[in-house]
Design brief:
Elements: H1 6-10, E1 37-40, E2 46-51, E3 57-61, E4 66-70, E5 76-80, E6 86-91, E7 97-101, E8 106-110, E9 116-120, E10 126-131, E11 137-141, E12 146-150, E13 156-160, E14 166-171, E15 177-181, E16 186-189, E17 195-198, E18 205-211, E19 217-221, E20 227-230, E21 236-240, E22 246-251, E23 257-262, E24 267-272
Antiparallel strand pairs: 1-24, 2-3, 3-4, 4-5, 6-7, 7-8, 8-9, 10-11, 11-12, 12-13, 14-15, 15-16, 16-17, 18-19, 19-20, 20-21, 22-23, 23-24
């Protein structure tokens, strides 16, 4: 599958205007969910995924206890190994790679050359990672039903509480949040504090949550076979189907597609995003 990553990065201007949390879509958008295109196979229970600024894709492999790195030519290499239950993964504003250890209740910070140190400890089964608009690391702290924010020093602050076994969260351009709860449903938190409990169409929402530059939010259905877009009224629509327990999700650098990792067959697929403005 060499060379398949390059088209995702070449056109990456990512110059979308941040105008609304959920842009309007045409009525025909996603009338027929896309058939995912398989890019790579052979991963061992992949979970978190993220691109760095150069277009390299990092994948946390739970089953192998490692993080793999795929370059622009599609060549795969081990970036870090010897990890215990690597789950969430995010690339920070500083270019460092952050990886959650679900088994050891820690988050590690890796330099671009692979040097590791503990960034946060004393967590409670950390799952998905992302960064908010202020550059803080958001951690889905599953066992305490919280989303925590960690600053550059690793100091923690609760951001959202009272959730239902959260496994991932993203901040939207308007300052709100969308949280995936593996215990049931998707929580939309408005900037004014209002909550909408969404995700009724999901079997089991998973750790893969991705937000585009213009505020569209997508969540994997780990207990099902789809990737779904979350709508502002709490409904959702399938953008891809036929996947075997999708678990990881990331927006590609070209801004026109998603990449999802599947637990069931250890593969990574590309999904085109329709209905863009």
């Amino acid at each position: 599958m060499t060379g398949q990553l390059r088209p995702l990065v070449v056109a990456t201007a990512l110059a979308f205007a941040v105008t609304a949390i959920f842009p309007a879509l045409s009525p025909a958008a996603y009338a027929n969910p896309a058939a995912p295109e398989r890019l790579w196979t052979g991963f061992s229970s992949p979970v978190g995924m993220a691109f760095d600024a150069d277009g390299h894709l990092f994948v946390a492999e739970w089953g192998a206890g490692q993080v793999s790195r795929i370059d622009l030519a599609g060549k795969r290499a081990i970036f870090a190994d010897g990890l215990a239950g690597p789950s969430g993964l995010a690339v920070g504003p500083d270019g460092a790679i952050y990886v959650a250890s679900y088994s050891l209740d820690e988050v590690y910070r890796f330099t671009r050359t692979g040097e590791r140190r503990v960034h946060v400890t004393g967590l409670a089964t950390p799952a998905g990672l992302s960064f908010d608009r202020a550059g803080r690391l958001l951690i889905a702290n599953r066992r305490t039903n919280q989303i925590l924010a960690a600053d550059d020093t690793g100091r923690l602050e609760p951001v959202i509480e009272g959730l239902r076994t959260p496994v991932a969260a993203v901040q939207t351009p308007d300052g709100g949040y969308v949280v995936s709860n593996i215990g049931g449903g998707v929580t939309i938190l408005r900037p004014d504090g209002a909550r909408i409990e969404a995700g009724g169409a999901f079997a089991t929402p998973g750790p893969g949550v991705a937000v585009t530059k213009d505020g569209r939010v997508f969540v994997v259905d780990y207990g099902g076979t789809t990737v779904r877009e979350i709508l502002p009224d709490g409904r959702s629509r399938a953008v891809a189907e036929g996947l075997r327990s999708p678990v990881g999700l990331v927006v590609a650098p070209d801004g026109a597609s998603l990449l999802t990792a599947t637990w069931g067959d250890g593969a990574i697929y590309r999904i085109p995003m329709s209905g863009q403005r």
